[in-house]
């Protein structure tokens, strides 16, 4: 999925554009999704691809929504050497939007912490 820069600006808010298209980061503890505890799915705000299940969400005490695993074929990663340190950057597999980073200090069963920008996602509650 590709859009022109003009189309992305029309789809996303300025803050969402800065994160998804320019690989920015929202301030810690500012996302309402950090405190979202209902059953449901977290999807990419740019293309609506389901990314994470609420069943894998946990409180990492970092100030960003965190998950121990993405949904199958939802995300892609690449090395990020910004800030003088090697990190794994996480992108939406469909639209390529920057979501956050994955670290190896998460809980079992994966030991991973997908530290995501809440502005990069939207929550879809599970319907009965």
What does this structure look like?
This protein is mainly beta and 128 residues long. The protein has a single domain (5-125), classed as Metal Binding Protein, Guanine Nucleotide Exchange Factor, Chain A (Beta Complex). The chain is built from 2 helices and 9 strands; from the N terminus they run ααβββββββββ. The strands form 2 sheets. A 6-stranded antiparallel sheet has the order 3-4-8-7-6-5, with no helix packed on it. A 3-stranded antiparallel sheet has the order 2-1-9, with no helix packed on it. The mean pLDDT is 94.
Overall pLDDT metric: 94
Radius of gyration: 14 Å
Described by strand count, sense and barrel closure, the largest sheet is: 6 strands, antiparallel
CATH homologous superfamily title: Peptide methionine sulfoxide reductase
What would you call the shape? globular
Number of strands: 9
Structural class: mainly beta
Query: Kindly, what is the distance between the CA atoms of the first and last residues, rounded to a whole number of angstroms?
Result: 31 Å
Proper CATH architecture: Beta Complex
Share in β-strands: 25-35%
Supply the number of helical segments.
2
Return the CATH topology.
Metal Binding Protein, Guanine Nucleotide Exchange Factor, Chain A
């Amino acid at each position: 999925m590709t859009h022109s820069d003009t189309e992305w600006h029309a789809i996303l808010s300025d803050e969402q554009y800065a994160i998804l298209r320019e690989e920015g980061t929202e301030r810690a503890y500012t996302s309402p999704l950090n405190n979202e505890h209902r059953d449901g799915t977290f999807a990419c705000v740019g293309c609506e691809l389901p990314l994470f299940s609420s069943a894998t969400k946990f409180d990492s005490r970092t100030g960003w929504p965190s998950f121990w695993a993405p949904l199958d074929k939802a995300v892609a990663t690449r090395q990020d050497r910004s800030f003088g340190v090697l990190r794994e950057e996480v992108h939406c597999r469909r639209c390529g939007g920057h979501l956050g980073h994955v670290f190896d200090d998460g809980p079992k069963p994966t030991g991973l912490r997908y530290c995501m920008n809440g502005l990069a996602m939207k929550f879809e509650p599970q319907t009965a």
